[in-house]
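INTERNAL TRANSFER SHEET
From: sequence group
To: structure group
Subject: ribonuclease P

Please process the attached sequence and return the structure record in the designated field. Keep the field labels unchanged so the import script can parse them.
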Amino acid sequence: MVRLAHPLSFFTQSHYWRPLLCCHYFKRTQTASTNFSSLTTLARRDKSQEGGTTTVKLSTKARRKAFYESPEGVLLRKLNQCSSEGDVVQALCHYDEARKLGVVLNLDHYNKLLYLCSIENADVAKMGLKRGFEIFQQMLNDRVQPNEATFTNAARLAAAKEDPDMAFELLKQMKNVAIVPKLRSYEPALFGFCKRGDAEKAYLVDADMIESGIVAEEPELSALLEVSVKTKKEDRVYEILHRLRATVRQVSESTSWIVQDWFNSEYAAKIGKEKWDVNKVREGILQGGGGWHGQGWLGSGRWKMVETQVNEDGVCFSCREKLVSIDIDPKETETFAASLSKLACQKEAKENFVHFQKWLARHGPFDAVVDGANVGLSNGHNFSFLRLNTVVEQLRQRSPSKRLPLVILHASRVYGGPAQNPKNRRLIENWKKNGALYATPQGSNDDWYWLYAAVSCKCLLLTDDEMRDHLFQLLGSSFFPRWKEKHQVRASSSTSGVSLIMPPRYSIVIQESANGSWHVPTITSDDPEIPRKWLCASRSKNKSLQSVWTSSSKSD
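Return from structure group:
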C-alpha cells in the first residue's frame, strides 16, 4: 500500500521552502509586476531622443483605480465579500474561475482563501480542509512569499484536521524565518493540545508564547486552566489562577465553571500545606501590594465553594472575610503618565498638549478631574451646565482642601452654545478665575487631556466613559484597568438628583487570602447597581492566619 504524505509535509521540510522564504525577489513577483505594469505605467515618445521612450508612473490614485478595475482587483473584492459572509463555497468558485482565466493571485488572495477554508463550518468542513491544503500547495508552487497570516491560517487548517503538532511546527518555522508571531498564531496549537488533553505539549506552546513576549488572554488561560484541572496538575492550576489575577482580573462565566470544577474536585481536597511559614506569607502579601501571597495552596481538607456577593466594604457574605484594596506602585503611575504623554504628543498637535502640561504644572495638582463633556451630556442630547456644576460642587465638598476639581471642556463648549447663557457664563468665568477650567483647542481629543491630568495628579477622575474605545486600547497596559478601578468616579441620576458613585473600597480582582481562601469575581454589567457575583472558596477547618499573627504578637 502506498503511504500518503501529510497534507502539510511539503511545507515543514526546510530544504523545500526555506530558500523561498529567505529570498527577496521571486520569479512569481516578476511575472506579477510585468502583468500589472501595463495598468500602472504609461509610455510616451521622448522628444529629445529620436525613437526613445520614457516610462511615466501613474499617480497613487490612478494606480489604485487601475488595480480596482483589473481582474486581480475584482477577484479580491469578491473574496472580501465571501470572507465577510463566511461563504467558503462561493470563494472556491471564484478561485477556480480565476485560475482558468489565468488571473495572477497575490498574497492577499491566498490569505483570504486560506482563512475561509480554515474557519469552522460543519456543512463544508471536509471540503474546506481538502481545498485549503491544495490552495496552500498551489501558493508555494506559485512562489508567493507567506506572511504571519499565511502561517496562522495554515496552522488553523492543521488544527482543524486535529493535528496540533503540525500547527506548532508551523509556528516554529514561522519564527525561524524571522516572521513575528501574534497571539492568534499560537491559538491553533494551544487550543488543539488542550482539547486533546495533552497538558505537557500545551505548556510547551505556552512557554514559547511567553518567550516571544506574547501575553495570553482569558481564552488561552482558560484553556490551560481546564487541561490542568483535568490532568490534576495542581501547581499549574495555582500558577494559572495567578496569571488570571494579574492579566484578566475578573473571569467570564465559562472560566468560572472551570474554577468551580477544581475547588469542588476530590483531588483539590487532598492538595495543600497543613503547616506553612507565616513570615513568608506575610512578606508575599506586602511585596505584592496585598490581595495575594504566592506561597502555594494553604490548608487541607475539602473546599467550600459557593457563589456569593460582597458588601460595599468588601466583606464576603459567605466566609465574612474582608477583601483588600490592592496598592499601586507609585513608580508604575509615573511610568504610565510618561507613556501617556508620549502617546498623546504623537496623536495630538504636540504644541497644544505641551502647552496643557505646562498649564497643569502651574495650576495643579488637583484632587479630582472632570470629563466635562461626558458629564454635561448625560442624556446624550442637551449639554447641561447645571448638572456639571452639581457634581463639581459635590467633588469640591469631598476634597480635603475643599478645592474645585479641574474641569476639562472643549473650546466649542466653553465659548459657544449654552455657554453664552449669562448664568452659565458667570459659572465658567468663576472656574477660570480659580484655575479650575481648561478649554481644549479645536481639533483636539479631550480624552487625552482629562486622562493625563488625572493620572499625573494621582487623583480621582469623574467620567461615565467606559474607556474602551481605540484610544484606550492604544495604552496596551495591565496598569490601566487597575488605575481606572481605583480612581474612576461615576455620576448617577435619579428623581432626587445627581449623586456620585465613588471607586470601590476593595479591588475587584481575584484575591488569595492569607489563610489560603480564594475569591474570584466574575464579569458583570458596567452598571454599578447590578450586584457582582463572586466565587468564594474556603476551607472551614483552617485556622485564620490573622489569628495566628494575633496570638504570636500577644505571646511576644
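Handover comment: The first strand starts at residue 41 and ends at 45. The chain has 26 helices and twelve strands.
Transfer complete.
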